[in-house]
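User: I'll paste a sequence; please echo it back and then give the predicted structure.

Assistant: Echoing your sequence first, then the prediction.
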Amino acid sequence: METKVCLVTGASSGIGKPTAEALAATGARVGLICRNRELGQQAADEIKAATGRDGVDLLLADLASLESVRAVAAEILERYERIDLLVNNAGVVNTSRRMTEDGFEEVFAVNHLAHFLLTNLLLERITKSAPARIVNVASGAHKFSKLDFEDLHSERSFKAMRVYGASKRANILFTYELARRLDGSGVTVNAVHPGPVASRLAQNNGLWAMIITGVLKPFFRSPAKGAETSIYVATAPELEGVTGKYFADCRELRSDDASYDEAAWRRLWAESERMVGLNA
């Protein structure tokens, strides 16, 4: 991985931080895409200290804002001549419906739309850097939620885990469609399920959520354990050329049957493209 450039969203905590640390330890230059400057800088400093590598950069972006996503993409393209790996890792869980400044439901916007836009804005550079990899952190929670194309922003009803699961299904559909589009390009795109992880996910929902996640923490994986599949799919030599797959516990599995509906892949792509104004 030496001399390679790797980008990780949500790299200040959770599984994003050990993912970034493992990549830095290989000698790669790693860009940490974080929302909070203080937490992001702390993560960068700790990764440098742990790995003895200086090639760790902090890139600030609020993934709830399309303007911010576009700004960080422009910064990345200006800073790096190549992009060998993009790990779309950041995620959010909300217990109540919140809207972004762009008028989108926040969980769908952060977990899917932001990564859809960021990936597409960087895609030409990634393709020129081939062989390259894109890793999308999804979840087994996709199996418990459908993606309602008539209500992508949960206007009719909002149930926290249903909305989260639907956003993770979107990650998988996006993975499969992007892999199809990039077939033969030298860029692979795969999705991963990290398992239940003791992280800061959902702790933006007040005291009650913090209490619940604290009680459940002993039953969850550590962030380092949860990051193992992301790291494996990002770096394993035996996965060179493997694309359009879903991984958990460092092995290839099938996502649920409905996720292989190619019409749904194409529909989500078109809807996402329209929402983020990709061709505007």
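Residues 184 and 241 are 9 Å apart (CA to CA). The longest strand covers residues 187-193.
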